[in-house]
Amino acid sequence: MKLVPMGFTTAYEVHERRSELIQIRTGSSALDRLIGGGVETGHITEVSKLAELFWGYRSVKSKFNMDCKHVLENIAVARCYNSDHQISLLTMAAAMMAESRYALLIVDSATGLFRSDYCGRGELAARQMALSK
């Protein structure tokens, strides 16, 4: 199975795939409008400080009338300490998303640990290889 199409496709096929996307609203109508309706599943959306935005769970009760404890129990959180640990956690996250109904993965600084673990021009090739995993 190919993960990335290597050739051409028709614009209609692209349109059909795009029409099947699910967008998850952020809770901010202004941000949703800015990014075209919400965060798209199946894609990488990088927005600085977005992870901190989701920690505003106190407003969940007042805005959506939801139990904060129930909401927090449905959010999996992990902290990684080096690039190898990050790769391991991403593998575990992929398994969790396949087994459960998690719909959104937020990674705060996808490349930061790689920059610190592989510093300098001498390790640039090794860093790029590690990032390509």
TrEMBL record:
One of the Pfam families matching this protein, by short name: Rad51
Record-annotated Rad51-like C-terminal domain positions: 17-47, 59-133
Domain of life, source organism: Eukaryota
GO cellular component: condensed nuclear chromosome
GO MF annotation, one: single-stranded DNA binding
Biological processes annotated in GO: chromosome organization involved in meiotic cell cycle; DNA recombinase assembly; DNA strand invasion; mitotic recombination; reciprocal meiotic recombination
Protein name: Rad51-like C-terminal domain-containing protein
